[in-house]
Design goal:
alpha/beta, Rossmann fold, nine-stranded mixed beta sheet, 10 helices, 11 strands, 21% strand, binds adenosine-5'-triphosphate, binds magnesium ion
Length: 276
């Protein structure tokens, strides 16, 4: 964090979320997303990186279970082009095996070290670890104490988003509690399935160093946009969606989000640039 009273912010890239976080994530922090399967954690993580890529920042996506092709499949399903960023190495997609990640001697630490170096050279760095659960659940008690140390390294390297799988029974066991406790920000994504508006909800559980909104907000996942918090921020406006290369269903949804003042003209411009 910087010396002045207001910490600098890293825009999340999720429409509607920065306002709830007091301006975005705080720079050089570790930020957790907790949610059951299918709540959009992977999409959120990639969206966070896309925002950085478009701002010229260096980004890295770390996974333990997804193959590289899976990453591309997720971006394709949302209509986002990332191949050029991967080609130019502005975006690195890395897969680690849980078996070879003893904290003190892992490929991750080497990668983080390199990132911290590049961060020193004035580049903003965004890191997504999706998901952190395989790592935390396979390590032993003693090594869990090293999570704090690992997070300190992450913060030096850049601003990170890590995801944690919440079990369906809603019981957050101790192995998930540790990273949540040590994180600077925790966002809880929920899919309660009550249909339409309140089917998916987002709540900021904590945000160290910052004000945050304490409400529960509906969110959706939309082709082209990704995760969008349904929080009215603007005057509604009419948008011509005919040229958007997304499904008819997504077009209708985007039209509605614009009319309701949930997304801005700037958001629309961003989507157009982003999609294939
Ligand atoms: N093109 C799309 N349009 C609308 N919704 C989509 C689209 N693609 C995916 N989704 C939604 O996103 C969900 C998957 O999101 P994501 O993969 O980010 O979830 P996750 O929390 O990472 O889940 P997992 O436990 O599989 O890692 C799908 O279940 C679906 O509801
Ligand atoms: Mg996922």
């Amino acid at each position: 964090m910087e010396n002045n009273r207001r910490p600098s912010r890293i825009p999340t890239g999720i429409p509607g979320l920065d306002e709830l976080l007091g301006g975005g994530y705080v720079k050089n922090t570790v930020n957790t997303l907790i949610g059951t399967t299918g709540t959009g954690k992977t999409i959120f993580s990639i969206q966070f990186l896309l925002e950085g890529l478009e701002r010229g920042e260096d980004c890295i996506y770390i996974s333990f279970d997804l193959e590289k092709e899976d990453f591309e499949r997720v971006t394709e399903s949302l209509g986002w082009k990332v191949a050029d960023y991967i080609e130019s190495e502005q975006l690195k997609v890395m897969k680690f095996h849980v078996e070879d990640t003893s904290f003190l001697n892992s490929g991750i630490m080497k990668t983080l070290g390199q990132l911290a170096e590049s961060a020193k050279h004035e580049h903003e760095v965004r890191i997504a670890i999706d998901s952190f659960t395989p790592l935390i659940t396979t390590i032993d008690e003693r090594a869990r104490a090293d999570v704090g140390w690992f997070f300190r390294n992450l913060r030096t390297a850049g601003t990170a988003v890590i995801t944690l799988e919440e079990p369906f029974d809603g019981r957050i066991n101790s192995s998930l509690e540790i990273p949540a406790f040590l994180s600077d920000c925790v966002i809880h994504l929920k899919n309660i399935g009550y249909g339409e508006i309140y089917s998916r909800t987002l709540r900021i559980v904590k945000h160290r160093f910052s004000w945050h909104n304490e409400g529960v907000f509906p969110y959706s996942i939309v082709e082209g946009i990704g995760v969008v918090v349904e929080n009215k921020r603007f005057e509604g406006f009419k948008v011509d969606v005919s040229k958007l290369r997304v499904s008819e269903f997504a077009k209708t949804k985007i039209l509605k989000l614009a009319e309701e003042g949930i997304i801005s003209e700037k958001d629309i411009e961003k989507i157009i640039k982003r999609i294939l």
